[in-house]
Amino acid sequence: METLKLSPSNSLPLPQQPVSLQTLPFSLLQSCKTQEEVLKVHAFSLRTGTFHHPFISSRFLALYARPQVNNLDYARSVFQLIHKPDLVSWNVLLKCYVENQRSHDAVSLFYELVHDFTPDVFTLPSVIKGCARLNAIQEGKQVHGMVLKIGCGLDKYVQSSLVSMYSKCGEISSARKVFEQIGVKDLVLCNSLIDGYARCGEVEFALQVFDEMPERDLFSWTALVDGFSKCGRIELARDIFDRMPSRNMVSWNALINGYMKSGGFVIARQLFDEMPTRDIITWNSMIAGYEFNGRFMDALYLFLTLLKEGPVPNHTTLVAVLAAVSGLAILGKGKWIHSLMVKSGVEPEGVLGTSLINMYSKCGSVESALTVFRSISRKKLGHWDAIIVGLGMHGMANHAIGLFSEMRRCGLKPHAITFLGVLNACSHAGLVDLGRQYFNMMVRKNGIVPAVEHYASLIDILCRAGNLEEAKDITESMPMQPNKNIWMSLLSGSRNFGNVKIGEYAAQRLIEVAPDTIGCYVMLSDMYAAAGKWDKVSWVREMMRKRRIQNDLGSSCIEQRHAS
DNA sequence: CTAGGGTTAG
C-alpha cells in the first residue's frame, strides 16, 4: 500500500496543502467510482496521514468492497489496519468474501465475528448467501437457528436469503415452510421460491407461484428459464424464454446452458450467434458446453475466436479449453495455452492446476505434468489425485506410489479417485500384492466403498498376473454387476494364460453385457487358436459373420504444426 | 463528531 504512487488527477479535486480531516471530505470518498480513483484518494490520504483515522480507514474498506471495485485483497489489507473494527466493517468484509467466491473463508470469518458481536440484519444475509454458495445446508440451518434466536426473522433481506438458501441446497420443502410463515411476500422472496421449484423440476409449483405473484420482473422469468434448463426441461425453458417480455444476457446464457446440458449444441450455437451482446460467461458456457458434448474441436476453435474478438478469458475459460485439449490430446495446443497463462501471470492454483496436470498427462507428457505439479505451492487434494492418476496412466507405478505415500505424510486423506489412480498404477506395473494391499487399505482403513471402477482395476491387476480364479471369485462376490471392462480383463487374462474354461465363461458374460464388443470375438478366437482348438476358432469366425460384426477400421491422428 | 453495511437470475 505504501508504494502507491500519487498521480495528479484531472478528474478529482485533490487539495494541494497538508490537510486535516475536514479537508478529506466525505463527498470526495463517496465520489470514487473506479478502483483507480479510490487508489488516488487512498494514496493522498496516506500522505496526509488521515488514513489511520478510524472513520477514514473503515470508509476505504467500504470503497474497496463496493461492487464496482470489489477488490478483496485491498479490502482485506485495509481491514487488518483497522484497530478495533466495528460490526459494520466486519459486515462489509464478509460480503466482499462472498462476492469473490470465497464463501468458505466468509463462513470462517463469520465464526470469528460472532466472538465479538451479535450478528445483525446486515450480517446474516451475507453469511446465509455464503452457505447457499457452498451448499452447506448444515451450517445454513445453524445460521437459521441464530436468526430466530436473535430475532431477525422479520427482516425481508434475511427472509429472502433463507428461502434462496434452502432452494439452492435442494431443500424445497424447507424453503416453502419459511416462505409460508412470512406475512408480506415481496418480489424477491417469490423469485427465490420460483427458483427453488424450477431447479428441482417442480414445474407446476414454480408456475403457480409465478402466476399468483402481483408483479413479475426479469428475475422471475429468468429463474424459470434457468431452473427448467438446469433440470433438463429444455423445451419448457425455451417456451418461457420465447414468451419473455424482455431479455437480458443472463436469460440468454441460461438458455444456452440448458441446450448444452441436453446435447443441443447446434441450437446453442444458433442462440450464441443470434444474441445481441455476449459476455465472458456466454463464451465460457459455449466452450464448456462443447467440451461437455465431446465437441473438442469446436471448443478449441471458439476459444481461438474468443481471443481474437471477445472479452478477456478467465479461469473458467481456461479450465474448459484445457479439458477440450485433453480430449483431443494435442500436446502442442496444450503447451500453447499453458504459455498464454504464464505470459499473462495466471497461477496454476486450484482447479486450474488440476486441469493443467490432467492436460499434460492425457497429452502424453507426464514430465510436464510433474513440473506443473511441483510448481504449485499450495497443493490441494485434487492436485495429488491428478498427478497420481497421470503417473498411473503412464505406467510409472513406483513414482505414483511414492507420491501417494508423500501425500499421506502431508496429512491429506486419499479418497476414492486417489485410490483408483494407485490401483491403475499397480495394474500397469504388474504389482499384484501391492494392488491387493491398497484395495484392502481403501476399504478397511479409509472406509471407502469401492465403486465398480475399483473392482475393475483390482480384477485387471489379478488377471494380468494370471490369478484368474481369484479374479473370477471377485466378479461373483462384488455387490454390483460386473461391467464390460471387467469381463474383457478376465477374457484377456484367460487368453494370455491359456485358461479356456474361464475364458469361455468371461466371453459368455461379456456378450450378455455388451454384445457388440469386437474385441471379445477376436480374443476368444485367439485363445482357441493358442490352445489348438481350430474347430472353435472357425466357430467364432462364423458367429462374427452371422452377427455382422466387423473389425473397426484402424485409425490414428497426427498433430499438424502451423507456422505462427 | 457522524455514517457507513444486507436479499433473488447466468
From TrEMBL:
PROSITE patterns registered for this protein in UniProt: PPR, PROKAR_LIPOPROTEIN
PPR repeats: 186-220, 248-282, 380-414
Highest rank taxon of the organism: Eukaryota
One MF term in the entry's GO annotations: RNA binding
Matches recorded under Pfam families: E_motif, PPR, PPR_1, PPR_2
Any one annotated GO CC term: cytoplasm
GO BP terms: mRNA modification
Keywords: Repeat
TM segment ranges: none
Tagged with keyword Zinc: no
UniProt record similarity statement: Belongs to the PPR family. PCMP-E subfamily.
NCBIfam families linked: PPR (TIGR00756)
Name the UniProt record assigns to this protein: Tetratricopeptide-like helical domain containing protein
Organism field: Parasponia andersonii
